[in-house]
Amino acid sequence: MIDGVTLLTIVLMAGVTYLTRIGGYVVLRNRTLSGRATAVMEAAPGCVLISVIAPAFVSSNPADLLALAITLVAATRFSMLPTVLIGVASAGLLRHFIG
Amino acid sequence: MSISQAVETAGDGSRSEFRRGVASCAPVLFGTIPYALVLGAQATQKGLSTVELSAMTGLNFAGGSEFAAIQLWTSPPHVVLIVAITFLVNSRHLLMGAALAPFLRHLPRRKVFPALFFMCDESWALGLADAKQRTAAGITPAFSPRYYMGAALAMYLTWVAFTTLGALLGPMLGDVGTYGFDMAFPAVFLVLMRGMWTGMAAARPWLVSLVVAAMVYLFVPGAWYVAAGAMSGLVAAWLMAGDA
After folding, report:
1. Are residues B150 and B43 in the same domain?
2. Same-domain pairing of B62 and B121
């Protein structure tokens, strides 16, 4: 049920995640970050998230690109649940009708 | 609840504070459940067993990084890549913990360290907002550990339970790509980024990441596009901060 490499990956993920949770409290409680370091820290999560989904932006399937455009517009207007529903529904329907 | 007892403070611990935390988290849970199910279902498609998925969400408990990890998951997984991406996605916790630190000074570390395990975007936001309201109302101490733990444990149990349920239901759903469920990932990520949006100038590094990641994805085989995109965005943020 549990693969060795998978377990190792999960344990290491959990380890670095916990370090990020306590790190801010332990290291930064009595000091302030430089302006540049703060800017990099603030940009980091968005840079990672957009990089992970970047392949969707260069899909060769017109239905996928159109669905992504709809999802992008939805994400600027709606909360999580409606956006996910709109994204999933538009991708499912457009793939069915456009191919 | 041993954890809630662990963060109980003298003179400021009551069951009603814990319940108040759970109640304030309820609307958030409603939005969390669908994508917990999607994560679980997607994980089984990538070859994780239900036990492995539950271990991941129970031990790691950070949704954004779990979505990223599942998206990049191969069999066997690329350990270094996934752990590095997990760190980068969760690096925002460093800032969150730093923002919370002034409110935690009156608490002993043996209570803070277990409590911080449960710090997620939602419990952090609720706990910090509550502490600021209590400060404005003149209540001391400003931070209510039981309120925070009520919200945090509600999130934790919901996340682990519904990602597990998603993994159990996953095989019944078939290929999620057929129905468009894979679009849930860009949707979730884009909404998370909307929440981080502070203006076009601050988002320029994201654009750099997008362009570099897309180019590397098209022209370089393997999953290097994530690391290349993320790192180029961070370099851009560093350079742009120098202009300001």
Report:
1. yes
2. yes
Q: B208 and B158 share a domain?
A: no
For chain B positions 205-244, those within 8 Å of chain A (CB to CB) are: 205-206, 208-210, 212-214, 217-218, 225-230, 233-234, 236-238, 240-242, 244
Query: Considering the entire predicted model, what is its pTM?
Result: 0.73
**ipTM of this complex:** 0.83
> Quick one: B143 and B182 in the same domain?
yes
Q: Report the pLDDT value the prediction gives residue A37, as an integer from 0 to 100.
A: 81
The long-range contacts involving B173-177, CB below 8 angstroms and separated by at least 24 positions, are B173/B41, B175/B45, B176/B38, B176/B41, B176/B42, B176/B45
Mark yes or no for CB contact A46/B203 under 8 Å: yes
Q: Residue A49's pLDDT is what? A: 81
Q: Are residues B122 and B210 in the same domain?
A: no
Question: Encoding tokens for residue B148?
Answer: 């925070």
Instruction: Name the domain count of chain B.
Output: 2
Model pLDDT for residues B21-78, shown as the tens digit of each residue: 998 888 778 768 877 888 999 899 899 999 999 999 999 999 989 988 998 999 889 9
Interface of B with A in 139-168 (CB under 8 A): none
Instruction: Give percent above pLDDT 90 in chain B.
Output: 45
Do B75 and B161 lie in a common domain? yes
Please check whether residues B183 and B217 belong to one and the same domain: no
Query: How many angstroms separate the CA atoms of B99 and B125, rounded?
Result: 10
